[in-house]
User: What shape does this take?
Amino acid sequence: MAAITLKINGKSVNVDADPKMPLLWAIRELAGLTGTKYGCGIAQCGACTVHLNGAPVRACSLPVAAAANKEITTIEGLSADNSHPVQQAWIQEQVPQCGYCQSGQIMAAAALLTRKPNPTDADIDSAMQGHICRCGTYPRIRKAIKKAATLATTNVTR
Amino acid sequence: MKTVYTRRNFIKASGLSGAALLLGIRAQAQDSAIFTAAEAETLGIELNNWISIDTTGLVTLINHRSEMGQGSFQSVPQIIAEELEVDITQVKVVFAQGSQTKYGSQITGGSSTIRGSYKQLLRLSATARELLVQAAANQWQVEKETCYAEKGIVIHRPSGKKLGYGALVSDASKLTPPTSVRLKDPSTYKILRQPLPRIDTPLKTNGQAVFGLDKKLPGMLYAMVERNPRFSGKVKSFNEAEVKALPGVRHVLKVEMAVFATMRHGVAVVADSVWAAMQARKALKVEWDDTGFPHHSTEQLYTRLREDLKAKPLWFKAKGEVDKAWAKSKKTLEAVYETPYEAHACMEPLNCIADFKNGKLEIWGPIQGPDWVQKDVADLMGIKPEDVTVNMTFLGGGFGRKAFLDYPHEAAVISKAVNAPVQVVWSREDDMTQGPFRPGMVYQCKGGLTEGGTIAGFEAIMAGQNMGHQNPGADKIAYNDSVTEGFPETYFDSIPHYRFGDVPLESPVPVMWWRSVYSSTNAFAYESFMDELAIAAGKDPLEFRKQHFWNGRFHALANRLAEVSGWHTRKPNEGYGIAITECFSSIVGEVVKVSRKASGGIKIDKVWAVIDCGWYVNPDIIRAQVEGSIIMALGAAVKHATLFADGKAVQKNFDTYKMPRISETPDIEVHVMDNDEKAGGVGEPGLPPCTPALTNAIFDLTGKRIRVLPFSLDEIG
Assistant: This one.
């Protein structure tokens, strides 16, 4: 066990954890933020995606020690009031069905738009390819990313 | 259906909750059931509460079905809000607890939420509205007919006086409800038929929606269970002491959970956190006794199924004299189709919380049938249903899997054993390898054509595991009446000679409902064969189907599908395929367009779908459900399958059970037929036609007939 300081959504959280524990379980069980989901545990589905210093990472496969003192953003930190353009676009396009994978999808889309404010279909494919949605919301995810690009005039890099 | 209201059964004033008006309706499972209040009491049927309005005017609507993505959380309230005349954005929606006596059937399966409840809900809501309007009219001492309700307010038309529902509930609760209410003409709907945004969407875009895995109780422990990988084996020994000594581990114990008529044996590791339980489980070593039952491989299972087709089937549905029809046919043809076993692979792995205390059980989890859990888990635990409370969370996918009782039962067994609230968490690998699976099927179809190119005779035999045969006390020689699911009812009128049979297979592999159930595999066989018959008859596949549609709804749908897909103006060298199926009282037709990729293989360019689900609630939810059904069908057609080796499922996670991804998703266009036929299902009927429409399109483009699933689009030249 080791004392590790995590910076999650701008707040410092001190945890006592096995350094090899995946960041996912530190976020869910030690920091108590349950918006980030367990889907496969082997970085195949993307449900656990969070931002580490702004870049999307699979929290299920990243040791907590590797995230120490870096800026971690979870779905709760993207915005609690759904004001982020990606969240807005997701609502406008009515993307979620069961919703379980959507935290990860939204975090991946937000990171994509930071990097590429006007993504092409190929950009969307490559950024979202690692995210499984069993409900099959992919057509709406594509539409929503394009919509978010038009909405994102200010705060997409938040 | 006739519903008899009396003041006593319709309204309950509650002082305790602060809710002044609770409106209910007696549970009626069948349309034909008529109960009087007195009978209802004798039968032990309680009154339920779907709507509550408090004195501040806050309206709370209950969703009695589970929300697994299909939209009940929106569509049940959308029905109520229309006739109750409330603004759907201002109401609160909560999940009901499991109770068949309060809500009737709650099993969220068979695409039944709307088609099973809408008439009751409309009438209930209209009756409530009438009482509120009457209460206002009484207060103003005016004729009721001069008043109307809108957005939670009653308005006196001549004077413009207004009273909110909150101010009226107390008076309304003292009135006798009208014996009959007039329901709105669908053309005047303001809320129904509108593509309103779902109430649950904002909860699912900021991480606030509480799924089963997100629910937490004080003092809760977490369990992971190593279950027998061959389903029927028993625990011989395990390294209890070693695992119990690991960090965070509280208990290591043998458990058994009921899976239909069998018990699945396992060893549970109960720990302080999910992570601790997962880690400790890695150190768990269980020795199994796997003797006394077969350890099948996929190859053995399918060899057996193909052999079974030669046996005498149990004939289910027959008309005319099929054997004589062949001799009279100008042409006959036969084909065999095979479909794989499939995992449900819901994105949220199975999980359930149970708190067993002093002979009472409370359950929280992603559950499709809370009323089933209440009753059956009570039986299994030897307690009364009224001592079991079942709470639904949001479900991270269901597709049939979360309608079954194994995982709540297992949670209850563990909670009782360790005397604490326990959440059982299944790993992805557990979820994918333990089943129940969609059963693998082999179909043999035979057809004859008349001189004029219509169907003279049709025969289909299905070999596969029968889901119903697994239930306790099942009659294992009973035929499978699901063998015709997916087959449009209208064909039974137009085809002069037909018969359907099945040869059930016994296997330790547990099988169950997978989105659209038997239709998901039957339709591949039957709609592929319909295409083969059309080609053999030298007819256009769409026109050939229309020749056999003796029902106007099918013609209207086929025409619409032809129009939106450009079926009749398609160019040579374009691959177009069609399939039309009927599932859970809805008709769906799909056209798939495919082309050759420059790099080799086939690309799916577009899917057009037309759904006729009769009376409907929300066109956008319908479109979303059909889109999702198409993508789920494509996964089972061209991406994934569960194979077995030595009695165990081979595919354990998404690295080998490959899912469709965004880049593989074709453009999808969905159209909803507008009519007022009886409401049909929405969550599943979009799935069955997709695969045969795809393989029919590939035949159209390449001349290659695909009869075995799954197949690779890249390997078709």
Notes: Chain A has a mean pLDDT of 95. Residues 2-77 of chain A form a domain with the Ubiquitin-like (UB roll) fold (CATH 3.10.20.30).
